[in-house]
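Researcher: Please generate the 3D structure of the following complex. Treat every line as part of one assembly.
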Amino acid sequence: MSYQVTIEPTGDIIEVEEGQTILNAALRQGVWLPFACGHGTCATCKCQLVEGEADQGEASPFALLDTERDDGKILACCAIPESDLVIEAEIDVDPDFAGHLVEDYTATVSAIETLSPTIKGLTLALDRDMTFQAGQYINLQLPGIEGTRAFSIANAPSNPGQIELHIREIPDGAATGYIHHKLKVGDNIEFSGPYGQFFVRKSDPKDVLFIAGGSGLSSPESMILDLLESGDERQITLFQGARNGSELYHRERFEQLTEHHSNFTYVPALNEPTEEENWQGFIGFVHEAAAAHFQGKFADHKAYLCGPPLMIDAAINALMQGRLFEKDIHMEKFVTAADGAKEVQRSALFKRI
Amino acid sequence: MSPKKLNLKDKYKLLTRDLDWEFSYEDRKEAFPYEEFEGIKITDWDKWEDPFRLTMESYWKYQAEKEKKLYAIYDAFAQNNGQTNVTDARYVNALKLFLTGVSPGEHAAHLGFAFTGRQMGGIGARVAAQMQSIDELRHIQTQIHAMSHYNKFFDGFDEFNHMHDRLWYLSVPKSFFEDARTAGPFEFMIAIGFSFEYVLTNLLFVPFMSGAAYNGDMATVTFGFSAQSDEARHMTLGLEIIKFLLEQHEDNLPIVQKWLDKWLWRGYRLLTLVAMMMDYMLPQKVMSWQEAWELYFEDAGGALFKDLERYGIKMPDYTDTIKQEKEHLSHQAWWIFYQYTHAAAFHTWTPSAEEMDWLSEKYPDTFDKYYRPRWELAAEMEAKGERFYTTGLPQLCQTCQIPMAFTEMSDPTQVVYRESIYNDERFHFCSDPCKSIFDNEPEKYVNAWLPVHQILQGNCGGGGLDKVIEYYHLEDGVANLDFEGSPDAERWKDWKGVA
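Model: Done. Output below.
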């Protein structure tokens, strides 16, 4: 038994298990809420309950005064939902967030392409157009597989009738295994979307850089195509990381884009190129390629990171050492079930990164 | 979507940043004379992100309601003779230590934040610091009021303010806060706002408040909760100040690192009093000092420093020393007080057989080997009527002012002696970090008011120990000496009907 909690004003939706606190569920599902003590004494996580019922849990009478309880205030770190809820948290809505509505869609698989030995490209034709922001993701429902799986959309929003996904096969992964080995062209699948806060902050005129690893190329590809199609003139640099040449997909596509757009720069990086490939480009991790390219100085940029947790972490470190900070770093972490097991304790120093 | 009323963000903005003014005819530098002298470079105060959005109007409303609630509980506690419900009268000595040692620190913090709340150039930072300044004033007031009830029944509370300025061990917290308050505004914010209020606060408050809860002291638990509801703002302010300084200019990094190295050590040394309180003074123990250190510093602080590493901040290199000292600290500290209890404003005792078993279990590598034999000998001498006191005066560390009693971790039977020579004068230190703090700013620490030096110079009543005790406002045989045989102990027996 679990309850759905909608967090306004961003509209993020989280699933809260029975007996679980809202804060615990939110942080585990990658939704940031302001918090500090985590045990009901400090009131940093105070929210307004808009709809539904919740148990106040262990909230201290000094942190949540009686008058506040009467006004429907709750502490996210203590409150345990007793129904589906809508709460209003003290978080800001991004002015660049378009807020397209999440809806359910049915799609037909129109193409399955092998992008690399581990990554398939999936093209879906939708039953109707879906408006989304470049960088957002969908939740895919697969037959016989419990729960949904999140995949980022790789194409630009200018073609709303279809979506492309890049899907890496995870060892022993039920969903990705199904997609790689069972799914056929012509199959129907269901999904909901669009979700996520990963999109280009176009209102900020600074130059942008993208750091992508593995199938984390999907969102940046969508975002870059969207920027270039709209004639955006800021400097755009893409760093794409892969283990070797065979995993480095869509290279030709980006090389062609550099020929037509003088403001676009493409830097692929391989960390383990094979001898036969005779790789002439950057050898090393993708964050090292970015640091080398910008001589370790990243100030006055907007950075967008997409890929596995280790790559994201290394990239954040490199960017911060180059004096680009949280406010200008946006990311989409591709977390798999295997990553969840080794959760690391984080401090309250950073909100989003 | 057109909001009918202002949202919190806009409201806060109008009531803080919009209240600032442009310096059109006065030199801004003269208005904020301390902003540059520490070497900190601020390029843009607009980048300050408000750590919380609380307008003054709501601040007063909330705080007033908290006070009403708190004082209702104090009244109930007094009417029910709450003092008789604590686990044991020995517990009250932890409160004496708190009122004389910690509460005046709240007042010092109040003054310090009032200073930074005036001197920082950014309006957002100033408003946040001003609120904290008022909070700290509230904290010392509520603490005094909570303790005033105990003062009616126990010795050692009545002269807390006077004692704070004079007693040898109270110069440890006093000099700690004075060191912070005589620094510039940004060092104060890193010292107290970040290092103390964010990194180390749980090690101070949780042991005292849980100690109170475990030992039946509702009044203290309640002021603890009331104060903690303000701590959230203090913690988020501490986080914002360090992020802000590190993001403003790369030249700030080495300065902030030096302050962190200094203040985490200064704070840790101050917490020696908490370590001893947890392991020796609470009749009903909460957890050992070692466990508290592991939970609140090694785990939580470890996660914080891992995040700070992204800015280039490094964990101070003495943390390995602290890791080793955690098994020794409380035992060495309680031994200091046991030897000098004739000059202290609370009672001491040797741990009981049961308590020693608890200490053996919590400190399997050190207690039986180094400390149990000492306590057993002390108890044996006591039984023979030969209670051991040290009548000489101890050498003090020039930096932390704690008597030089901490030992080398490579050989826990050898006391650490470090020294530096400055202007042909020799200064002594209890540890390498205390020495390096001195070496960085010798001109500051040569001015330290060291209680032992002052006694020897005749500035503490003159004459012998009897005069010093008088100067401390201690009545011999009342608030000092062992718990056993004290007026506190006699009254407690009386209440409990024990012969």
